[in-house]
TrEMBL record:
Protein name: N-acyltransferase YncA
Top-level taxonomy: Bacteria, Pseudomonadati, Pseudomonadota, Alphaproteobacteria, Rhodobacterales
Domain of life of the organism encoding this protein: Bacteria
Keyword Isomerase: no
Molecular function per GO: acyltransferase activity, transferring groups other than amino-acyl groups
Gene3D superfamilies (alphabetical): 3.40.630.30
Length: 162
């Protein structure tokens, strides 16, 4: 498996991973699918802060981050996303992606990475705990999808300089 910066030509495969999760799970609260064009713009804007895992020439997962909140006081905090295709799971893909993303974040002066995780995704909560994230809050019923109110678990990791 190769971990590398995303390229605009990866956008269709990233959209496939993202939209499959949007359509079929409560991992994300959104119901709006993303186009390859939107994802290509994100890749261009985020640069190294958009990493992919490639296996046998195919993108099987990605990790990226963007703003946590607006305003200069939050300039050193970012909220990240990490999503895997089924063929990327159980191979250490998530760990490799988060390590690469943390390295980029440190190099860009990011102090804190935040994860907003659906409480319906206990695997992601366990994953984040295993890679050093701490649970800092739970927001009951802030999400709504498929006629259900959903809780959001907030986790964060303070990135020590290495």
């Amino acid at each position: 498996m190769i971990i590398r910066p995303a390229r605009p030509r990866d956008a269709a495969q990233i959209a496939e991973i993202t939209n499959t999760i949007i359509r079929g799970t409560l991992i994300t609260f959104t119901t709006t699918e993303r186009s390859p064009e939107e994802i290509a713009r994100d890749i261009d804007e985020r640069g190294l802060a958009f990493q992919v895992a490639e296996l046998d020439g195919r993108v099987v997962g990605y990790a990226t981050y963007g703003s946590f909140r607006s305003g200069p006081g939050y300039a050193h905090s970012r909220e990240h996303t990490i999503l895997l295709a089924p063929e990327g799971r159980g191979r250490g893909t998530g760990r490799a992606l988060i390590r690469a993303l943390e390295e980029v974040a440190r190099s860009q002066g990011v102090h804190v990475l935040v994860a907003g995780i659906s409480a319906e995704n206990p695997g992601a909560i366990a994953f984040h705990a295993a890679v050093g994230f701490q649970t800092v809050g739970r927001m009951p019923e802030v999400g709504h999808k498929w006629g259900r109110w959903l809780d959001l678990v907030l986790m964060q990791k303070i990135l020590a300089s290495e």
